[in-house]
Amino acid sequence: MAIDALHCKECRAEYDLGAHYVCERCFGPLEVTYRHAPVGDVAAVRRRIQGGPQNIWRYADFLPLEVQPGPSRRAASRAGLPAGCTPLVRADRLAERLGLGQVWVKNDAANPTHSFKDRVVSVALARARELGFDTLACASTGNLANSVAAHAAAAGLRSYVFIPADLEEQKVLATGVYGTNVVAVNGTYDDVNRLCTELSAEHPWAFVNVNLRPYYAEGSKTLAYETAEQLGWETPDRVVAPIASGSLFTKLARGFEEWLELGLIEGDVPKFHGAQASGCAPVANAYASGHEVCRPVKPDTIAKSLAIGNPADGPYALELARRTGGSIDAVTDDEVRAGIRLLAETTGIFTETAGGVTTATLAKLAGRGDIGRDERVVVYITGEGLKTLDAVRGTFAVHQVDASVDSFAATLPSAVTA
Ligand SMILES: *Cc1c(COP(=O)(O)O)cnc(C)c1O
Ligand SMILES: [Zn+2]
After folding, report:
1. Cβ contacts of residue 215 below 8 Å, gap of 6+?
2. What pLDDT is stored for residue 93 in this prediction?
Protein backbone atom coordinates (compact mmCIF):
# COMPACT_ATOMS: atom_id res chain seq x y z
CA MET A 1 0.00 0.00 0.00
CA ALA A 2 1.34 3.42 -0.90
CA ILE A 3 1.19 6.07 1.80
CA ASP A 4 -1.21 8.81 0.70
CA ALA A 5 -1.61 11.72 3.14
CA LEU A 6 -2.55 12.67 6.66
CA HIS A 7 -6.26 13.13 7.26
CA CYS A 8 -8.11 14.58 10.26
CA LYS A 9 -10.08 11.82 11.97
CA GLU A 10 -12.90 14.28 12.68
CA CYS A 11 -13.35 16.61 9.68
CA ARG A 12 -11.26 14.65 7.11
CA ALA A 13 -9.15 17.75 6.24
CA GLU A 14 -6.02 16.66 4.38
CA TYR A 15 -2.40 17.43 5.32
CA ASP A 16 0.96 16.62 3.77
CA LEU A 17 3.02 13.74 5.17
CA GLY A 18 5.14 15.87 7.52
CA ALA A 19 5.50 15.93 11.32
CA HIS A 20 1.91 17.07 11.93
CA TYR A 21 -0.48 15.56 14.40
CA VAL A 22 -3.39 17.91 15.04
CA CYS A 23 -5.95 19.44 12.66
CA GLU A 24 -5.61 23.21 12.32
CA ARG A 25 -9.33 23.56 11.63
CA CYS A 26 -10.96 21.44 14.32
CA PHE A 27 -8.07 20.23 16.57
CA GLY A 28 -8.92 16.61 15.76
CA PRO A 29 -6.10 14.02 15.61
CA LEU A 30 -4.48 13.25 12.26
CA GLU A 31 -4.01 9.75 10.88
CA VAL A 32 -2.14 8.25 7.96
CA THR A 33 -4.18 7.15 4.96
CA TYR A 34 -3.04 4.86 2.15
CA ARG A 35 -3.83 4.24 -1.49
CA HIS A 36 -4.98 0.63 -1.45
CA ALA A 37 -3.94 -1.32 -4.50
CA PRO A 38 -6.26 -4.34 -4.73
CA VAL A 39 -4.55 -7.58 -3.70
CA GLY A 40 -4.70 -9.78 -6.78
CA ASP A 41 -3.06 -12.98 -5.64
CA VAL A 42 -3.70 -13.45 -1.92
CA ALA A 43 -1.54 -16.58 -1.69
CA ALA A 44 1.40 -14.74 -3.26
CA VAL A 45 1.13 -11.84 -0.81
CA ARG A 46 0.95 -14.25 2.13
CA ARG A 47 4.02 -16.09 0.85
CA ARG A 48 5.94 -12.84 0.48
CA ILE A 49 5.10 -11.89 4.07
CA GLN A 50 6.12 -15.32 5.34
CA GLY A 51 9.39 -15.05 3.45
CA GLY A 52 10.11 -11.62 4.95
CA PRO A 53 12.29 -10.73 7.93
CA GLN A 54 11.49 -12.18 11.38
CA ASN A 55 10.35 -8.80 12.70
CA ILE A 56 7.70 -6.14 12.04
CA TRP A 57 9.30 -5.16 8.72
CA ARG A 58 7.77 -8.28 7.12
CA TYR A 59 4.67 -6.02 7.15
CA ALA A 60 6.54 -2.99 5.75
CA ASP A 61 4.17 -2.71 2.78
CA PHE A 62 1.38 -1.81 5.24
CA LEU A 63 3.39 0.73 7.26
CA PRO A 64 3.75 4.50 6.70
CA LEU A 65 7.07 4.90 4.93
CA GLU A 66 7.60 7.02 1.86
CA VAL A 67 9.96 4.63 0.11
CA GLN A 68 7.98 2.52 -2.36
CA PRO A 69 6.43 -0.74 -1.10
CA GLY A 70 8.53 -3.78 -1.91
CA PRO A 71 12.10 -4.93 -1.24
CA SER A 72 13.55 -1.48 -0.48
CA ARG A 73 10.91 -0.82 2.13
CA ARG A 74 11.42 -4.23 3.71
CA ALA A 75 15.15 -3.43 3.82
CA ALA A 76 14.32 -0.99 6.62
CA SER A 77 14.59 -4.13 8.74
CA ARG A 78 18.35 -4.12 8.39
CA ALA A 79 18.61 -0.85 10.30
CA GLY A 80 18.27 -0.64 14.05
CA LEU A 81 16.76 -2.86 16.69
CA PRO A 82 14.29 -5.39 15.28
CA ALA A 83 10.93 -5.65 17.05
CA GLY A 84 7.96 -8.00 16.69
CA CYS A 85 7.44 -11.64 15.75
CA THR A 86 6.70 -12.33 19.40
CA PRO A 87 5.18 -15.66 20.52
CA LEU A 88 1.44 -16.35 20.41
CA VAL A 89 1.05 -19.04 23.04
CA ARG A 90 -1.98 -21.28 23.46
CA ALA A 91 -2.82 -21.04 27.17
CA ASP A 92 -4.89 -24.14 27.97
CA ARG A 93 -4.16 -24.08 31.70
CA LEU A 94 -5.28 -20.46 31.94
CA ALA A 95 -8.41 -21.27 29.90
CA GLU A 96 -9.18 -24.24 32.13
CA ARG A 97 -8.77 -22.19 35.31
CA LEU A 98 -11.25 -19.63 33.96
CA GLY A 99 -13.68 -22.12 32.43
CA LEU A 100 -12.96 -20.90 28.91
CA GLY A 101 -12.40 -22.77 25.64
CA GLN A 102 -9.53 -21.40 23.57
CA VAL A 103 -7.29 -18.71 25.05
CA TRP A 104 -4.12 -17.45 23.37
CA VAL A 105 -1.56 -15.14 24.96
CA LYS A 106 0.31 -12.75 22.68
CA ASN A 107 3.49 -12.24 24.67
CA ASP A 108 4.78 -8.85 23.57
CA ALA A 109 7.11 -8.67 26.54
CA ALA A 110 9.38 -10.66 24.20
CA ASN A 111 10.51 -7.50 22.40
CA PRO A 112 14.02 -5.95 22.61
CA THR A 113 13.08 -3.59 25.48
CA HIS A 114 10.41 -5.93 26.83
CA SER A 115 7.24 -4.11 25.85
CA PHE A 116 5.05 -3.61 22.79
CA LYS A 117 6.41 -0.05 22.51
CA ASP A 118 9.28 -1.34 20.35
CA ARG A 119 6.76 -1.74 17.52
CA VAL A 120 5.55 1.86 17.56
CA VAL A 121 9.02 3.28 18.14
CA SER A 122 10.46 1.30 15.21
CA VAL A 123 7.93 2.84 12.86
CA ALA A 124 8.23 6.37 14.31
CA LEU A 125 12.02 6.17 14.07
CA ALA A 126 11.97 4.97 10.47
CA ARG A 127 9.67 7.87 9.55
CA ALA A 128 11.71 10.36 11.62
CA ARG A 129 14.77 9.45 9.56
CA GLU A 130 12.86 9.88 6.30
CA LEU A 131 11.85 13.33 7.50
CA GLY A 132 15.47 14.19 8.39
CA PHE A 133 15.30 14.38 12.21
CA ASP A 134 18.46 13.69 14.22
CA THR A 135 16.92 13.76 17.71
CA LEU A 136 14.28 11.43 19.09
CA ALA A 137 12.10 12.32 22.09
CA CYS A 138 8.94 11.17 23.86
CA ALA A 139 6.47 11.73 26.69
CA SER A 140 6.40 8.40 28.46
CA THR A 141 4.67 6.41 31.19
CA GLY A 142 7.86 4.29 31.33
CA ASN A 143 8.07 1.71 28.59
CA LEU A 144 8.17 4.27 25.80
CA ALA A 145 11.20 5.99 27.39
CA ASN A 146 12.86 2.60 27.58
CA SER A 147 12.19 1.88 23.93
CA VAL A 148 13.05 5.33 22.54
CA ALA A 149 16.37 5.32 24.42
CA ALA A 150 17.32 1.89 23.05
CA HIS A 151 16.25 2.51 19.46
CA ALA A 152 17.98 5.91 19.40
CA ALA A 153 21.15 4.26 20.69
CA ALA A 154 20.98 1.55 18.01
CA ALA A 155 20.44 4.16 15.29
CA GLY A 156 23.05 6.60 16.61
CA LEU A 157 20.56 9.41 17.25
CA ARG A 158 20.39 11.76 20.22
CA SER A 159 17.40 11.32 22.52
CA TYR A 160 15.49 13.05 25.29
CA VAL A 161 12.93 11.04 27.23
CA PHE A 162 10.42 12.66 29.59
CA ILE A 163 8.85 10.63 32.39
CA PRO A 164 6.77 11.30 35.50
CA ALA A 165 9.16 11.56 38.48
CA ASP A 166 7.38 8.78 40.45
CA LEU A 167 8.14 6.00 37.94
CA GLU A 168 9.29 2.50 38.97
CA GLU A 169 13.06 2.48 39.58
CA GLN A 170 13.50 -0.56 37.30
CA LYS A 171 12.10 1.39 34.35
CA VAL A 172 14.32 4.43 35.01
CA LEU A 173 17.46 2.28 35.28
CA ALA A 174 16.55 0.25 32.18
CA THR A 175 16.26 3.54 30.29
CA GLY A 176 19.27 5.53 31.48
CA VAL A 177 21.60 2.66 30.65
CA TYR A 178 21.25 3.44 26.92
CA GLY A 179 22.93 6.84 27.29
CA THR A 180 19.84 8.95 26.72
CA ASN A 181 18.86 12.17 28.48
CA VAL A 182 16.34 11.11 31.13
CA VAL A 183 14.14 14.00 32.26
CA ALA A 184 11.96 13.23 35.32
CA VAL A 185 9.11 15.73 35.49
CA ASN A 186 7.43 16.59 38.79
CA GLY A 187 3.86 15.77 37.81
CA THR A 188 1.62 13.17 36.21
CA TYR A 189 1.96 11.74 32.71
CA ASP A 190 -0.57 14.31 31.53
CA ASP A 191 1.76 17.08 32.80
CA VAL A 192 4.67 15.40 31.01
CA ASN A 193 2.65 15.25 27.82
CA ARG A 194 1.70 18.93 28.03
CA LEU A 195 5.36 19.89 28.53
CA CYS A 196 6.40 17.79 25.53
CA THR A 197 3.71 19.36 23.36
CA GLU A 198 5.16 22.79 24.21
CA LEU A 199 8.76 21.64 23.67
CA SER A 200 7.88 20.10 20.31
CA ALA A 201 6.98 23.58 19.06
CA GLU A 202 10.39 24.92 20.14
CA HIS A 203 12.81 22.15 19.19
CA PRO A 204 13.26 20.37 15.86
CA TRP A 205 12.91 16.98 17.55
CA ALA A 206 10.90 13.92 16.62
CA PHE A 207 8.66 13.42 19.63
CA VAL A 208 7.51 9.94 18.66
CA ASN A 209 4.11 10.18 20.37
CA VAL A 210 3.52 13.91 19.85
CA ASN A 211 4.46 15.37 16.45
CA LEU A 212 5.11 11.90 14.95
CA ARG A 213 2.07 10.31 16.58
CA PRO A 214 0.21 9.50 13.33
CA TYR A 215 3.18 7.37 12.17
CA TYR A 216 3.96 5.97 15.64
CA ALA A 217 0.38 4.78 16.08
CA GLU A 218 0.52 2.74 12.85
CA GLY A 219 3.13 0.46 14.45
CA SER A 220 0.46 -1.12 16.65
CA LYS A 221 -1.26 -2.54 13.56
CA THR A 222 1.55 -5.09 13.38
CA LEU A 223 0.16 -6.73 16.54
CA ALA A 224 -3.00 -7.54 14.58
CA TYR A 225 -1.14 -8.66 11.45
CA GLU A 226 1.03 -10.98 13.51
CA THR A 227 -1.88 -12.44 15.43
CA ALA A 228 -3.77 -13.18 12.24
CA GLU A 229 -0.73 -14.69 10.55
CA GLN A 230 -0.01 -16.85 13.63
CA LEU A 231 -3.64 -18.05 13.70
CA GLY A 232 -3.34 -19.26 10.11
CA TRP A 233 -4.57 -16.06 8.40
CA GLU A 234 -7.72 -15.86 10.54
CA THR A 235 -9.07 -13.36 13.05
CA PRO A 236 -9.81 -14.35 16.67
CA ASP A 237 -13.38 -14.03 17.97
CA ARG A 238 -12.43 -11.71 20.81
CA VAL A 239 -9.42 -9.73 21.93
CA VAL A 240 -8.61 -8.36 25.38
CA ALA A 241 -6.11 -5.49 25.37
CA PRO A 242 -4.99 -2.71 27.73
CA ILE A 243 -5.90 0.95 27.23
CA ALA A 244 -3.64 3.87 28.20
CA SER A 245 -4.11 6.54 25.51
CA GLY A 246 -6.20 4.06 23.50
CA SER A 247 -3.77 4.04 20.58
CA LEU A 248 -2.83 0.34 20.75
CA PHE A 249 -6.47 -0.68 21.26
CA THR A 250 -7.81 1.23 18.26
CA LYS A 251 -4.91 0.45 15.91
CA LEU A 252 -5.19 -3.24 16.70
CA ALA A 253 -8.67 -3.03 15.23
CA ARG A 254 -7.39 -1.03 12.25
CA GLY A 255 -4.88 -3.81 11.51
CA PHE A 256 -7.55 -6.51 11.43
CA GLU A 257 -9.94 -4.31 9.43
CA GLU A 258 -7.32 -3.42 6.81
CA TRP A 259 -6.41 -7.03 6.14
CA LEU A 260 -10.06 -8.11 6.10
CA GLU A 261 -10.81 -5.36 3.56
CA LEU A 262 -7.87 -6.46 1.43
CA GLY A 263 -9.03 -10.09 1.62
CA LEU A 264 -5.75 -11.24 3.17
CA ILE A 265 -7.42 -12.92 6.16
CA GLU A 266 -10.64 -14.79 6.94
CA GLY A 267 -13.20 -14.03 9.63
CA ASP A 268 -14.84 -10.97 11.15
CA VAL A 269 -13.58 -7.99 13.13
CA PRO A 270 -13.11 -9.42 16.66
CA LYS A 271 -15.10 -8.17 19.64
CA PHE A 272 -12.86 -5.67 21.42
CA HIS A 273 -12.54 -5.79 25.21
CA GLY A 274 -10.54 -2.94 26.76
CA ALA A 275 -8.75 -3.18 30.12
CA GLN A 276 -7.98 -0.35 32.54
CA ALA A 277 -6.97 -0.07 36.19
CA SER A 278 -9.74 1.38 38.35
CA GLY A 279 -7.24 3.92 39.73
CA CYS A 280 -7.03 5.40 36.21
CA ALA A 281 -10.11 4.38 34.26
CA PRO A 282 -11.39 7.36 32.27
CA VAL A 283 -12.40 5.15 29.34
CA ALA A 284 -14.00 2.38 31.44
CA ASN A 285 -15.89 5.03 33.43
CA ALA A 286 -17.26 6.62 30.26
CA TYR A 287 -18.18 3.17 28.95
CA ALA A 288 -20.10 2.33 32.13
CA SER A 289 -22.01 5.61 32.12
CA GLY A 290 -22.82 5.50 28.41
CA HIS A 291 -20.82 8.64 27.56
CA GLU A 292 -19.12 9.26 24.22
CA VAL A 293 -16.22 11.26 25.66
CA CYS A 294 -13.96 10.66 28.65
CA ARG A 295 -13.79 12.83 31.73
CA PRO A 296 -10.08 13.23 32.69
CA VAL A 297 -8.95 11.67 35.99
CA LYS A 298 -5.88 11.99 38.23
CA PRO A 299 -4.18 8.57 38.16
CA ASP A 300 -3.64 6.55 41.34
CA THR A 301 -2.73 2.95 40.48
CA ILE A 302 0.21 0.52 40.46
CA ALA A 303 -0.39 0.11 36.71
CA LYS A 304 1.78 3.13 35.93
CA SER A 305 2.35 2.24 32.28
CA LEU A 306 -1.41 2.68 31.72
CA ALA A 307 -1.73 5.80 33.90
CA ILE A 308 -2.96 8.34 31.37
CA GLY A 309 -5.72 10.46 32.90
CA ASN A 310 -6.70 12.21 29.67
CA PRO A 311 -6.52 9.58 26.88
CA ALA A 312 -6.19 11.03 23.38
CA ASP A 313 -7.95 8.11 21.70
CA GLY A 314 -10.53 7.54 24.43
CA PRO A 315 -13.61 8.37 22.31
CA TYR A 316 -12.42 6.07 19.51
CA ALA A 317 -11.79 3.25 21.99
CA LEU A 318 -15.34 3.65 23.32
CA GLU A 319 -16.78 3.62 19.83
CA LEU A 320 -14.79 0.47 18.95
CA ALA A 321 -15.85 -1.51 22.04
CA ARG A 322 -19.52 -0.62 21.44
CA ARG A 323 -19.46 -1.19 17.69
CA THR A 324 -17.93 -4.66 17.97
CA GLY A 325 -20.02 -5.89 20.90
CA GLY A 326 -17.07 -5.80 23.30
CA SER A 327 -16.68 -3.91 26.56
CA ILE A 328 -14.28 -1.80 28.61
CA ASP A 329 -13.66 -2.87 32.20
CA ALA A 330 -11.65 -1.62 35.14
CA VAL A 331 -9.92 -3.79 37.76
CA THR A 332 -8.54 -2.89 41.21
CA ASP A 333 -4.85 -2.97 42.11
CA ASP A 334 -5.45 -6.16 44.11
CA GLU A 335 -7.02 -7.73 41.05
CA VAL A 336 -3.97 -6.58 39.04
CA ARG A 337 -1.62 -8.38 41.46
CA ALA A 338 -3.82 -11.48 41.28
CA GLY A 339 -3.84 -11.22 37.49
CA ILE A 340 -0.02 -11.18 37.37
CA ARG A 341 0.08 -14.30 39.56
CA LEU A 342 -2.66 -16.07 37.59
CA LEU A 343 -0.84 -15.56 34.28
CA ALA A 344 2.51 -16.57 35.77
CA GLU A 345 1.14 -19.70 37.44
CA THR A 346 -0.78 -20.95 34.42
CA THR A 347 1.47 -19.95 31.50
CA GLY A 348 4.98 -19.32 32.84
CA ILE A 349 4.77 -15.75 31.55
CA PHE A 350 5.67 -13.01 34.05
CA THR A 351 4.06 -9.74 33.07
CA GLU A 352 4.21 -6.22 34.44
CA THR A 353 1.21 -4.51 36.02
CA ALA A 354 -0.33 -3.67 32.61
CA GLY A 355 -0.52 -7.40 31.82
CA GLY A 356 -2.01 -7.93 35.26
CA VAL A 357 -4.76 -5.47 34.27
CA THR A 358 -5.38 -7.38 31.05
CA THR A 359 -5.38 -10.83 32.66
CA ALA A 360 -7.63 -9.66 35.50
CA THR A 361 -10.02 -8.25 32.92
CA LEU A 362 -10.09 -11.59 31.09
CA ALA A 363 -10.90 -13.26 34.43
CA LYS A 364 -13.69 -10.76 34.99
CA LEU A 365 -15.20 -11.36 31.54
CA ALA A 366 -15.01 -15.11 32.13
CA GLY A 367 -16.63 -14.79 35.54
CA ARG A 368 -19.46 -12.75 34.02
CA GLY A 369 -20.05 -15.43 31.38
CA ASP A 370 -19.35 -13.00 28.53
CA ILE A 371 -17.15 -15.42 26.59
CA GLY A 372 -18.51 -18.58 24.95
CA ARG A 373 -16.59 -21.85 25.31
CA ASP A 374 -16.44 -22.17 21.53
CA GLU A 375 -14.77 -18.78 21.12
CA ARG A 376 -11.13 -18.05 20.40
CA VAL A 377 -9.79 -15.25 22.62
CA VAL A 378 -6.44 -13.48 22.28
CA VAL A 379 -5.06 -11.68 25.34
CA TYR A 380 -2.42 -9.01 24.72
CA ILE A 381 0.41 -9.06 27.25
CA THR A 382 2.26 -5.83 26.56
CA GLY A 383 5.08 -5.66 29.12
CA GLU A 384 7.55 -7.55 31.30
CA GLY A 385 7.23 -8.41 35.00
CA LEU A 386 10.85 -7.62 35.87
CA LYS A 387 10.08 -3.93 35.32
CA THR A 388 7.44 -3.76 38.07
CA LEU A 389 8.78 -6.15 40.72
CA ASP A 390 7.16 -4.27 43.60
CA ALA A 391 3.75 -5.49 42.43
CA VAL A 392 4.54 -9.08 43.46
CA ARG A 393 6.64 -8.37 46.53
CA GLY A 394 5.14 -10.18 49.51
CA THR A 395 2.66 -12.22 47.47
CA PHE A 396 4.48 -15.50 48.24
CA ALA A 397 6.70 -16.98 50.95
CA VAL A 398 10.41 -17.70 50.65
CA HIS A 399 11.41 -20.70 52.79
CA GLN A 400 14.57 -19.85 54.73
CA VAL A 401 16.63 -22.95 55.74
CA ASP A 402 20.11 -23.86 56.89
CA ALA A 403 22.18 -25.90 54.44
CA SER A 404 21.19 -29.19 56.01
CA VAL A 405 18.66 -31.90 55.18
CA ASP A 406 17.29 -31.69 58.73
CA SER A 407 16.67 -27.97 58.52
CA PHE A 408 14.94 -28.41 55.16
CA ALA A 409 12.76 -31.22 56.56
CA ALA A 410 11.88 -29.16 59.62
CA THR A 411 10.97 -26.09 57.58
CA LEU A 412 9.05 -27.88 54.82
CA PRO A 413 7.65 -31.07 56.38
CA SER A 414 5.08 -31.35 53.60
CA ALA A 415 7.85 -31.69 50.98
CA VAL A 416 9.35 -34.62 52.84
CA THR A 417 6.14 -36.58 53.31
CA ALA A 418 4.76 -35.80 49.85
C1 LIG B 1 2.02 2.08 26.44
C2 LIG B 1 1.52 0.79 26.93
C3 LIG B 1 0.23 0.30 26.61
C4 LIG B 1 -0.83 0.98 25.77
O5 LIG B 1 -0.66 2.28 25.48
P6 LIG B 1 -1.66 3.10 24.52
O7 LIG B 1 -1.29 4.52 24.86
O8 LIG B 1 -3.05 2.78 24.90
O9 LIG B 1 -1.32 2.76 23.13
C10 LIG B 1 -0.10 -0.95 27.05
N11 LIG B 1 0.74 -1.68 27.81
C12 LIG B 1 1.96 -1.25 28.14
C13 LIG B 1 2.83 -2.13 28.98
C14 LIG B 1 2.40 -0.01 27.71
O15 LIG B 1 3.63 0.40 28.04
ZN1 LIG C 1 -10.24 18.45 11.53
Report:
1. 32, 64, 123, 124, 127
2. 98
What is the C-alpha separation between 388 and 394, in angstroms, rounded? 13
Of 305, 313, 349, 350, the one to substitute when testing ligand 1's pocket (max ligand atoms within 8 A of C-beta) is 305
User: Rounded mean pLDDT of the chain?
Assistant: 95
CA 339 from chain centre, in angstroms, equals 18
Ligand 1 centroid, distance to 67 Cα (angstroms): 28
Q: Residues of the chain with pLDDT > 90: what percent?
A: 92
Query: Does residue 418 surpass a pLDDT of 60?
Result: no
Q: Identify the structural domains of the chain with CATH numbers, from first to last.
A: 88-114+217-392 (3.40.50.1100)
Atom of ligand 1 nearest to the CA of 244: 8
Is 358 touching ligand 1 by the criterion CB < 6 Å? no
**Which residues keep their CB under 5 angstroms from ion ligand 2?**
8, 10-11, 13, 23, 25-26, 28
